[in-house]
Design a protein that fits this description.
The complex is a heterodimer of chains A (290) and B (512). By secondary structure, chain A is an alpha/beta fold. Helix content of chain A is 45%, strand content 15%. With 512 residues, chain B is α/β, with parallel strands linked by helices. Helices cover 26% and strands 22% of the residues of chain B. Chain B is built from 14 helices and 25 strands. Chain B starts with 48 loop residues before the first strand and ends with a strand. The chains are: A alpha/beta (290), B alpha/beta (512).
């Protein structure tokens, strides 16, 4: 699960790796791609591997790593360095169908070689017009996919369009990605808001993404996290309702009933699935209550 | 006996003090032999304004073995200490004690004067830069006395620290020696730390670069205390008063600490009408003040006073009506200086009123909350703000111990790790402030509450703040940083850290 707010952490300083855990991000994305200079790729990989091995507090966190794009010479080295770590999720930039398939094959090969026990998931980043047009194929290209991430800056560059704070130019892309992700039952994570000083702009941008179906958003600075989480966190009423739906659904399932009525509203499998997702977002167990 | 106006005066009167007959209006006399004063009366026609520093030094009779004092309102922009000591050195005077409320990197020339034997002792509240490094290397024969700001005022008042000549950097002075810090090209604001020196030194010299006609209208220290006035070309650089950064931090870790700290203050129950508050300059302190300001506005709280070194940020809170008054012992930026002059509710106070523990009432004892820093802290909440983790002197108490003891809630804030060094340690290199007066320690990884403050702990737990045991913070830091190699010390003592009441809380030894 990627969650509501995923914080990008540049892997170019030990203190950043050390400190990122104190913020309330739902997941941490250690970045081996854009934030690391080409000359520093080796050092960054080794630093990250050592950190994942030695910093035990990272094990309590939902850690993902953005490796280098499958079109580069670096991604296999990234995988080699990380395959035996505790990392359960990899973010794949410049996603293409072929690229995701290649990464999937390489991971499978390494999993066998190193007898990796845990499952490694993938989150492709859609950041070109072609990737957007073929997003269903990308999502279909690996069973490891748990979500899709939108990279609007590169996408806008590929389209030759100007990015704006209002984000009207990426409405279509957001809608298409969100729709595809939901069609596959996956998470749709929105592009970061790049003006770190504009809190109000961030909240508006996150609200727009949520309205179009995105389930979470990436943060490029820790101070963005609380705002993103608050936008994507279900309201207390939604949470209470989700608890109710899941509780009644469980009882009805035992009696073999799939669709039922609750407080005058029809509850079908789609509503139940949505309620489970709401509970998952806030980290609540299905059987628990608040 | 017959006095000078021809009246018969008995030699003794039962129940009355010793008799001194009147000798004439302009004759020396009048002070009781029981309480001799070294202060002299200035008669009409005698001019206080002297033409040079040399003349002032000769007039006050500077000689070897004397204690000369300075204040630190210019912080790292002070020119006066170097100027005076350079002249003293030229006169061939040796073996002087410098009693300066703080010593900064700009005072580097003192290192040479120590080497030449001109300066052989230092009494200060805070020292950083080349002089502190030289002392840490053992350059000074006698141990430095390190005090708190309130402790220095107490020592001067009590006579523990006798000052032969006080030199007061005065941004504006009139010809009779009324001085202030709010006017002139070198304005620095409050002159609070110089007040005890002016009151108790045998001789007091005001050093100014803005001499005006009598009378000065805004007076920080009045003419009754000043023997002489000397005009120099420049007494200091106003921009040097800026302490730390004047902008709110952008560091996410510092912001996290500041946010937690504000929540601790809110949860403590002290953030109500009449709230009084002290925090320093620097990014984290300003961020904390910013969060507190927001809460005060939301909850419509009107505080009573802000205290201490005053920043423009506190001035804005005063102007917004969030505080009724600011009690200012030192201005930490130029916005505070301008406010001090124009706003009647921005009040200049001396360091005795600020924090002298042996007065009939000081301001730190009225404080609700103070937020302080720490270089190191141990599981018993003992704090080091004097020495670095390598053992060298790089600071001092300043007002740390004063405000910690006086306030109802003392919060110490620090990142758990600085670079690769843990803040929570088994044993601080130096104990500057005792743990018994520290209530809460806030880090980015959790908040520890002194076991003696169970009431506060419960409030923080109720507010769902991340309360952790100090031992857990210490262990986390150790797990990340490893265990630092202990510093090995020689027997030689380089400095004595006094607590505010004059007792010795620790000694600083030379590093092997």
């Amino acid at each position: 699960m990627i969650g509501r707010a995923a914080l990008f952490v540049p892997v170019d300083s030990p203190s950043m790796i050390n400190n990122c855990v104190v913020f309330d991000a739902d997941s941490l994305i250690f970045d081996l791609e854009d934030s690391v200079l080409i000359d520093e790729k080796d050092a960054a990989r080794i630093l990250l591997r050592e950190a994942l091995e030695t910093l035990d507090f990272l094990r309590d966190k939902n850690v993902l790593v953005r490796i280098n794009a499958p079109s580069t010479q670096f991604w296999k080295h990234d995988l080699m360095e990380l395959i035996q770590s505790e990392v359960r999720g990899l973010i794949i930039p410049k996603a293409t169908t072929a690229g995701i398939e290649a990464v999937d094959r390489e991971i499978t090969k390494l999993e066998k070689r190193y007898a990796v026990q845990h499952r490694i998931s993938l989150v492709p980043i859609v950041e070109t017009a072609l990737a957007l047009e073929t997003v269903d194929q990308i999502l279909n290209s690996s069973k490891r996919n748990i979500g899709i991430l939108f990279g609007a800056e590169d996408y806008a560059a590929d389209m030759g369009i100007q990015r704006t704070k209002e984000g009207e130019e990426i409405s279509y892309a957001r809608s298409k990605l969100a729709n595809a992700a939901h069609a596959f039952g996956l998470e749709a994570i929105d592009t970061p808001f790049t003006d770190m000083q504009d809190t109000e702009g961030l909240r508006k941008d996150a609200a727009r993404a949520k309205m179009l179906g995105m389930t979470g958003k990436t943060a490029i600075h820790p101070k963005q996290i609380d705002h993103i989480r608050s936008v994507f966190t279900p309201t207390q009423e939604e949470i209470s309702q989700a608890f109710n739906v899941v509780r009644v659904a469980r009882k009805n399932r035992e009696r073999g009933v799939g669709t039922f009525s609750l407080d005058g509203r029809m509850i079908d499998p789609a509503v139940i699935a949505r309620s489970r997702f709401v509970l998952k977002l806030i980290g609540a167990e299905e059987g628990s209550s608040k | 006996m017959i006095n000078s106006v021809g009246r018969e005066i008995p030699d003794t009167i039962a129940g009355f003090k010793s008799m001194i007959p009147f000798r004439g209006a302009f004759e020396k006399g009048g002070s009781s032999p029981d309480f001799p004063s070294k202060k002299t009366r200035l008669l009409q026609g005698n001019r206080k304004v002297l033409t040079s520093m040399r003349e002032a030094l000769e007039k006050v009779g500077v000689e070897s073995g004397m204690t000369v004092s300075f204040h630190h309102h210019f912080r790292n922009g002070d020119y006066v200490l170097n100027s005076v000591m350079n002249e003293i050195s030229k006169m061939g005077v040796r073996n002087t004690k410098i009693a300066s409320s703080s010593i900064f990197p700009c005072h580097e020339p003192l290192v040479t004067l120590i080497q030449k034997g001109v300066v052989t002792a230092i009494d200060t509240d805070y020292m950083t830069g080349p002089v502190a490094q030289a002392v840490s290397r053992g350059l000074l024969e006698a141990p430095v006395t390190l005090r708190t700001h309130g402790g220095r005022a107490r020592a001067i008042d009590d006579g523990d620290l006798h000052i032969d000549v006080a030199f007061i950097a005065a941004p504006t002075a009139d010809v009779q020696g009324n001085i202030n810090g709010v006017d002139g090209p070198s304005k620095c604001g409050s002159l609070g730390y110089a007040v005890p020196d002016a009151s108790h030194a045998d001789k007091v010299v005001a050093v100014t670069d803005n001499l005006v006609n009598y009378p000065l209208t805004y007076v920080s220290i009045d003419q009754t205390h000043i023997d002489y006035v000397v005009k120099l070309d420049k007494i200091g650089d106003s921009t040097g008063i800026i302490s730390g950064t004047t902008a709110i931090t952008r560091s996410p870790i510092a912001l996290k600490i500041a946010e937690y700290t504000a929540k601790v203050i809110e949860a403590s129950g002290l953030l109500q009408n009449g709230f009084s508050f002290q925090t320093g300059a620097g990014g984290t302190s300003l961020a904390t003040a910013s969060f507190v300001r927001q809460i005060m506005k939301e909850r419509k709280v009107t505080g009573s006073f802000g205290l201490g070194g005053i920043t423009g940020f506190f001035v804005e809170m005063l102007e917004e009506g969030l505080f009724k008054a600011l009690l200012d012992v030192q201005c930490l930026d130029l916005k505070a200086v301008d406010s001090l002059k124009k706003d009647l509710n921005h009040i200049e106070i001396g360091s005795s009123m600020y924090a002298n523990p042996r007065t009939k009432g000081n301001a730190v004892d009225m404080l609700d909350v103070v937020v302080l820093g720490a270089t190191e802290i141990d599981a018993e909440f003992n704090v080091n703000v004097t020495t670095g983790s390598h053992g060298d002197i790089m600071g001092g108490s300043g007002g740390h111990g004063d405000a910690a003891e006086g306030s109802k809630l003392c919060i110490v804030v620090a990142p758990l790790i600085r670079s690769r060094l843990p803040t929570v340690v088994e044993r601080p290199v130096t104990i500057s402030t005792p743990g018994e007066i520290i209530d809460v320690f806030v880090t980015e990884r959790g908040i520890a509450v002194n076991p003696g403050r169970e009431d506060i702990k419960q409030r923080l737990v109720d507010a769902k703040l991340p309360v952790v045991e100090m031992e857990k913070l210490r262990d986390t830091a150790k797990r990340i940083c490893g265990k630092p190699t202990p510093i090995r010390f020689k027997d030689r003592i380089l400095a004595v850290q006094e607590y505010r009441d004059g007792t010795v809380i620790d000694v600083i030894r030379e590093v092997e």
